Every structure is written in structure tokens, then in C-alpha cells.
Amino acid sequence: MTVMEALKNRRAIRNYTAQPVEKEKIEQILQAATYAPNDRMREPWHFYIIQGEAMKRYEAMADAYLQERFPTKPNLVESSLKVVQTTPVAIVVTADIVENDEDATADNVFAVCSAIMSMWLAAEELGLGFVWRTRGVGLVHDARMHAFIGASDKQKVVGTIFLGYPQEQALTDKKRTAFEEKTTWL
């Protein structure tokens, strides 16, 4: 598979089988993340792996969050929780905050985003499903996630990754705007 094929075929996978993900595959995905470009080689990422009993605690936290946020939308809460209930592995990724330097902190977030995309492509190559969540069940913008993983006040949560063996699904073409419509040549 070429890089272009991997990019074109990449999908957000939210439905997984019960098959556990091998530690070696998780480690390969984490290794891929470390090859991401990053300003001044700060390597500003940290990975928090959630499995087993920790996933049950994460589910309880996500349920409480979703119930508070969407009290009149039980179907939304239920469908959002499904990914947490069926995912064998979640990975929360943080970026380092550089004290008194907003630009360097932003650069670190950009580097972590690049690391997450590297993880996604590695997961694709390994036959694993992957979805990067920020809002909602990803709890990226909620202080509970920060406390749950035990991140320091010098870390910013950038994404929650759900990872597992995908249930069978048909690959459909994604509608994308042609690059020409989003490009200005100067």
C-alpha cells in the first residue's frame, strides 16, 4: 500500500470486534508517532494507554460527562458510549505546554497532531481500526480527562484515540472537495 492509498482509504472506525490488540502492535503505533516532525526536537508528546479495568472507569466518566452535557438526548449518549464500550484500547495523547511561550506550545500541539496522524497510518498498515476523538466522548476539553490520566499541569490533552480490530464494513468513497477549490497560487 502506498502512502497515497493509505491516506485515501483511511477511515474513522468506531465499531470493533472483541479481539484484544496485541501489545506489540500498540508499541509499533507508538513508535510511529515518535517519527513525527516536531519543533526543536522537543518531542512534546505523552501517551496514556487505557485498557481493561481502566476502560471501565473511563466508560463511567464518559457516561457521567455525556449525561450532563446531553440530558435530553439519551440516544446520543447511548451511541456515543458505544465506541468506549466496544474498544479494547484507548490512547490519550497530550502535548507539552511551554511556560510563557504560547507559540512554542502551539507548535507542540501541531507536532502532536502530526504524531496522531502517523499513529493512524501505522494502525491502518497493521489492520487496526482507529478513530481520533476530541469532542464529546473524547473528553479532550473536559478537566475530568486530565485528572483521569494523571497529566501534569504542563500537559494539554490533544486527542483520545480508540483502537481495535474493525468490524467488517464496506469501504465507500469519501466526498472530498478538489484541492483546486481550496488552493491559491501566489
**Helical residue percent band:** 40-55%
Our estimate of the beta-strand percent is 15-25%
Radius of gyration: 17 Å
Helix vs. strand class? alpha+beta
| Span of the ends, CA to CA | 34 Å
Q: Provide a count of the helices.
A: 6
User: Would you list the SSEs in sequence order as H and E?
Assistant: HHEHHEHEHE
Q: Strand order within the widest sheet?
A: 1-2-4-3
Notes on the protein architecture:
This protein is an alpha+beta fold. It has helices at residues 3-9, 23-33, 52-69, 74-86, 102-125, 143-149; strands at 45-50, 89-96, 129-133, 155-164. A four-stranded antiparallel beta sheet has the order 1-2-4-3, with helices on both faces. Helix 2 (23-33) crosses helix 5 (102-125) and helix 3 (52-69) runs antiparallel to helix 4. The protein is globular, with a radius of gyration of 17 Å.
Features:
186 residues, alpha+beta, 16% strand, 4-stranded antiparallel β-sheet
Concise synopsis of the structure shown:
This protein is 43% helix and 16% strand. With 186 residues, it is an alpha+beta fold. It has a four-stranded antiparallel sheet, sandwiched between helices.
